[in-house]
Structure formats: structure tokens, C-alpha cells
């Protein structure tokens, strides 16, 4: 990957390392890896030490070498629904039942396996950098960076709350209030490596929701996350007595749907390179649409 910038007036006289870290989002780890793996930083076409100073108008060029893929992560020609793609990132509209990355339980057939095959067709020597991960049985939009520099930039945006995701969920039970917020910390459930639970010693977790439709048995919600903890939506609604329909891990029943009724339907963020505001939407899959129709 090759990226070029012209040093701005306000950065005149900065140390190159600081310029890359503070102005261009390079982490200390990424700079170290780039140098260790033979990547280059050029200033006005010449090799330049990271401790050197840059001047306004200098041309700074970073060259990252091709990324090495893990030996266990194999390319598989699996169809993907790609909503958007450019040289830097892509948006996948994930089906339910498909894991995002391989695990012991799901060693193949994942979004990551499919992406490697997609990259191979493009001649892109990169590995998979998932920015917004979804559980296997959650459907909807997934943001993926095409190299580790873009991943680093998007991770900073995500931590700053600048990547917005909205979900639609069907939960069990009826709500009296039209909208509310769940602000309860989440940590690992004692004795489990998979489950999470509300835990006073856990990490801050904030979930906003509004009720779109409700009957005596089920409620359709629009859910927006302020934080992004593992299983956050599933844990929060289970804790307040409204587990997601189909979510057997957290107390939901399967009489209405056979997987957790959760879909990431909207994703918006600023492009890390162009600065363009991007907005993407995904239609609800048929199983959740059918469940909603049955609520009438």
C-alpha cells in the first residue's frame, strides 16, 4: 500500500514520527511493524529518518509491504453481498448463520474466508481486518478495512464514537415506555468463556432504544449502541427481562424464530481517507420480516 500526503503549513517543523502519529493516525505499533518488515517512509522521494523534521510542502510517502496471512486462514470462494468497496474498505451485508472470522467451532465458511478469495481475484495481498464484528447469527452490515493502516484509522474513529450503527431487534415482552437507555456495565460471566453478563466490575456499556411496534408477546425495537461490548444488545435486554426472540444463550425462546432476531440495518461514518460522510442501509432478512408480520 502506498499513501502520499503534502505536509500542511501547521505541521511545519514537526518530527516526522510525530507528524505520522498525530496528523495521519499511525499507531506506534504500526510504525514499528512497517520499519521492521521493510516498509519505507520517503520525504520528497528520499528515504528519511522518523526522527527527522518535515517542512510545509514536503511530500511524505509511506509504503507498506504486502501483509502476511495466517496459515490457518484459507481463501474460500463463498459468495458475499458487498454493499460498497473502494481501495481502502468495504461493507459486507452478512447473512445470518455465517461467522465473521474462523474459530474452533467454525473453522471455515466465514466472511473472512470469503474475503480472502475476493482479494485474490483482485490481486490484493492483504489479510482480513474486521472493524465492526457481528455474532454468527446476527445479520446485517459489517465494516472491513483492506489494510492495517485503514484499520487503525477506523479503530480510532470507533473508539471515539464516530462510527454509528443502528440495529433492529425483536425482543420478548411488551414495553410501556416508547424509548429509553440501558446503562449497565458488561463483563464476562463467571465460569463461561462465551457468555457475558451485567457486572459491576465490567466495562461501561450504553444501549439506546425506541419501540417501533409492540404487542402482548413481542416488541420490535430500533437500537443504537453508544459502546460496543461483546453481546451488548443481547445481554442488556436479557438483563431487563426482554431477551431477544430466538436467543437461547440469553433466555430467548425459539417458538417465534430459530436465531436471535437481531439485524444491523444502518451504518454511517466518515471515510478515513476522503473524509466523505458515508451511509449504508440493509433490508431486514426474510425470517425477521415474517416475525414482524406475525406480530400484527
TrEMBL record:
The keyword Nucleus belongs to this UniProt entry's keyword annotation: no
GO molecular-function terms, A-Z: isomerase activity
Protein origin, superkingdom: Bacteria
Keyword Isomerase in record: yes
Keywords: Isomerase
Residues of the Pseudouridine synthase RsuA/RluA-like domain: 88-239
Entry-linked InterPro entries: PsdUridine_synth_cat_dom_sf (IPR020103), PsdUridine_synth_RluA-like_CS (IPR006224), PsdUridine_synth_RluC/D (IPR006225), PsdUridine_synth_RsuA/RluA (IPR006145), RluA_PseudoU_synthase (IPR050188)
Family: Belongs to the pseudouridine synthase RluA family.
NCBIfam families: rluA_subfam
Known role: Responsible for synthesis of pseudouridine from uracil.
Protein name from the UniProt record: Pseudouridine synthase
Amino acid at each position: 500500500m502506498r499513501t502520499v500526503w503534502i505536509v500542511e503549513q501547521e505541521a511545519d517543523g514537526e518530527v516526522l514520527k510525530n507528524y505520522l502519529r498525530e496528523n495521519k493516525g499511525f499507531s506506534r505499533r504500526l510504525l514499528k511493524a512497517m520499519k521492521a518488515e521493510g516498509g519505507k517512509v520517503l520525504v520528497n522521494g528520499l528515504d528519511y529518518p522518523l526522527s527527522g523534521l518535515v517542512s510545509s510542502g514536503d511530500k511524505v510517502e509511506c509504503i507498506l509491504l504486502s501483509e502476511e496471512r495466517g496459515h490457518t486462514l484459507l481463501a474460500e470462494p463463498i459468495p458475499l453481498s458487498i454493499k460498497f468497496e473502494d481501495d481502502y474498505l468495504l461493507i459486507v451485508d452478512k447473512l445470518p448463520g455465517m461467522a465473521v472470522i474462523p474459530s474452533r467451532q467454525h473453522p471455515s465458511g466465514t466472511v473472512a474466508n470469503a474475503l480472502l478469495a475476493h482479494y485474490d481475484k483482485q490481486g490484493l495481498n492483504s489479510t482480513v481486518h474486521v472493524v465492526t464484528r457481528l455474532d454468527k447469527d446476527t445479520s446485517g452490515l459489517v465494516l472491513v478495512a483492506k489494510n492495517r493502516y485503514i484499520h487503525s484509522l477506523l479503530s480510532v474513529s470507533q473508539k471515539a464514537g464516530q462510527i454509528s450503527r443502528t440495529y433492529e431487534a425483536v425482543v420478548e415482552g411488551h414495553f410501556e415506555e416508547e424509548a429509553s437507555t440501558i446503562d449497565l456495565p458488561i463483563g464476562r460471566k463467571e465460569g463461561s468463556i462465551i457468555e457475558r453478563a451485567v457486572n459491576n466490575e465490567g466495562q461501561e456499556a450504553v444501549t439506546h432504544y425506541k419501540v417501533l411496534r409492540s404487542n402482548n408477546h413481542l416488541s420490535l425495537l430500533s437500537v443504537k449502541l453508544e459502546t460496543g461490548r461483546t453481546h451488548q444488545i443481547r445481554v442488556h435486554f436479557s438483563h431487563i427481562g426482554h431477551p431477544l426472540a430466538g436467543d437461547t444463550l440469553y433466555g430467548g425462546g425459539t417458538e417465534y424464530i430459530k436465531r436471535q432476531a437481531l439485524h444491523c440495518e444502518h451504518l454511517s461514518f466518515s471515510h478515513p481517507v476522503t473524509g466523505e460522510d458515508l451511509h449504508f442501509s440493509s433490508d431486514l432478512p426474510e425470517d425477521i420480516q415474517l416475525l414482524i408480520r406475525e406480530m400484527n
